[in-house]
Amino acid sequence: GTFRRDGSSKFLKYWGHFPSFSAGWNVHKEGFWKDNDIINTLKIRGGYGVLGNDAIDDFMYRSSLVSGSNYPNGEIDPTIIIGYSPNTLGNPNLKWEETAQSDIGADIRFLNDFTLGFDYYYKKTKDILRRVAIPGYVGVPTDPFSNIGDMENKGMEFELGYKKNWQDFSLSINGNFSANKNKVLRLEDDVEWREFASLHSMGPVSRLQVGKPVGTFYGYTYSGVFQNQEQINSYTNGNGDLIIPNAKPGDFIWQDNNGDGKITQDDMVDIGSSLPKFTYGFTVNMNYKNFDLMVFAQGQGGNMLLQGLRRLDVLDANYQTAILNRWTGEGSTNDNPRLTRNDPNGNYTKMSKYYLQKGDYMRIKLVSLGYTIPKDVTTKFGANKVRIFVTGENLFTFTKYTGYDPEIAGGNEYGIDRAYYPQARTFLFGANIQF
Questions:
Q1: Three-class SS of residue 257?
Q2: Which of 190, 206, 288, 315 sits CB 3.0–4.6 Å from 196 for a disulfide?
Q3: Residue 378 host element (H or E)
Q4: pTM here?
Q5: What is the dihedral of CA 258, 259, 260, 263, to 10 degrees?
Q6: Residues 314-327 as b or e (16 or more Cβ within 10 Å = b)
């Protein structure tokens, strides 16, 4: 399962390194099964498989040379000579990322009109491929790839359906729900955690940490806003020293989580997971005579999003209107700090729960209404079938998230919303014609 030395790392050396199998049992076809109107069919199934992943560039185990490291020839009137230098560090121990998954489930049809599918799965990924950050003094422009560790995913999936036909009306409803739990099991060199992602001048905002989900947000916690100087003076450590000596009224009251009497990076703790605890969706199809209607909706919940729309590295970047609720004097608010161009307390530049919001949402993703013109009319124009329709996409989104779009926030960065362009609401009118 290692990479091929000829550079063609898109193929396995031996297919047998990645086995898979599945099996099922149609219980309702056994002789002991008696037909009934409660459970009509029952199938129990399970499977196991291993997949390999090499979704990186070729030759990443080598240190290749690239041009651009130009230098003068050392004469009084030097000429520039094209130079070459390593693009990254080689890693001769680089190997496949492997994911093994086991699954057990059942498919049931009951009460004649209902279907139910259930799955429980366990998936373990070993030797995860990811770039490793190295110090700048090493002198290579690109971080090398490495097999950084292992993680697991486990959860359940449900599908429930209903279908019924009447004389002029038919109805079909299908819904799905899935819950997943992710955990990092191991990191390279047995380290406990490593930085995962950064944002603007805030620095690292999430980590890979053993025992936690991938991309867990880490930051400072606070217990409100200083309302006056007396509160600041009374916030002291065991020696009577001020825990936040540079604080002013209107600043966050940072919590000393490790108890050392001062606020440092060691006080950063787990403040939320970027991964949804559950996702869901449902589709409704209805037909009445020549009319048809389809509605599709989906959503997720249990995750946090980092609302990073404002550029912290641009001093005069626009704020959202929520800044109008900032602290303006004693008693004005205990949730939002004062606004100042000089931010010695780090109210806006320290990663904290101030930037995290719930990523729960439910979106009406697609609605389509159609009408099929009677055949005795369409045949007069030489057409077998004519259906006219109107379709709307991304019509409504129900969420408390204040960013542009809770669905696309994060991408590969796991819940970090850098002002990604939102999905557009669109309407489409058209016709399907069959001749």
A1: coil
A2: 206
A3: helix 375-378
A4: 0.85
A5: 70
A6: eeeeeeeeeeeebb
